[in-house]
Amino acid sequence: MIKITFLGTGTSQGVPVIGSDHPVSFSKDPRDKRLRSSILIEYKNLSFTVDCGPDFRQQMLKANCKKLDGIIFTHEHADHTTGIDDVRPFFFRQGKIPIYLNKRVLDSLKERFAYIFDPKKKYPGSPDFDINIIENNKSFQISNLEISPIESMHLRLPVFGYRINDFAYLTDVKTISELELKKLNGLDALVINALRFEPHPSHLNVNEAIEIINFIKPKKTFFTHISHNMGFHQEVCKKLPKNVTLAYDGLVIEID
Q: Among 89, 90, 195, 219, which one has the highest count of C-beta atoms within 10 angstroms of its own C-beta?
């Protein structure tokens, strides 16, 4: 059984957005409060996250996560990576934390976090990592759990989503090839970004995401990376197909 906890389901600015007067910003429904997108995956003794954004510390505390066996990165953008320093409590207890990422993402982290990754600039007390490079079309393992990368495009930037057994997590997708979509056949649950109803240059909107859902036909789909422009959680869910719903922070699902 794989347990997935949605640590955050918001877009890069989170919801509410700083200084916003949008009606969703004043919602009393806790499902309308969204931290930056990430998930926690627990399987047997394993506990790891997909992405590590600026809300990472808060998310780990809310999830009562006491052990981190790895971080898998989708891409290098700030809302998916800038919590990397906040793994220090895990590092102090456990030692090196495994990270899984492609070389381009690693190069970006080395540039932006030189005090962590550059031996000449290493700052005392900064975390240390066991680096594992992901290549497209090559599955990898965390312990005995096999994980397959799924490549999509975030406008012009290649981004990895991941399939784990009959669960898949895709975020920051705008386009995805039919070849990659075929890797997603037979899913029990799909998590995919849907920013809002209106079109966006680098993210799927609701209709585009539903087109993908109709192609691969997962049993259940959860939308994530959601903007306040999507609208109120309760109202939007009523408009979606019966096998599709909005994820929300703190939602837990389990997959056999």
A: 195
In this structure, are 160 and 70 located in the same domain? Answer: no
Residue 220: its H or E element:
strand 220-224
Rounded to two decimals, the pTM is 0.97
188 within 8 A of 166, measured Cβ to Cβ: yes
- Quick one: 53 and 123 in the same domain? yes
In Å, how far are 64, 114, 243 from 48, measured between CA atoms? 13, 24, 27
pLDDT of residue 189: 98
Structural domains counted in the chain: 2
210-226 tens-digit pLDDT: 999 999 999 999 999 99
Do 104 and 12 share a structural domain?
yes
Percent of the chain with pLDDT over 70: 100
User: Residue 221's domain is classified under what CATH number?
Assistant: 3.60.15.10
Q: What is the mean pLDDT of residues 76-86?
A: 98
Radius of gyration in angstroms for the set of CA atoms belonging to the chain, rounded to a whole number: 17
210 phi/psi in degrees, rounded to 5: -65, -35
* 112 in the same domain as 13: yes
Residue 128 burial (CB count, 10 A): 14
What is the pLDDT averaged over residues 142-147?
A: 94
Q: Mean pLDDT across the stretch 63-77?
A: 98
Residues 59, 180 within the same domain:
no
**22 belongs to a structural domain:** no
**Residue-wise over 139-158: b if at least 16 C-beta within 10 A, else e?**
ebebeebebbbbbbbbeeee
SS3 235: helix
Which residue range is the domain that position 175 belongs to? 146-247
Q: What is the pLDDT of residues 225-248, one digit of tens each?
A: 999 999 999 999 999 999 999 999
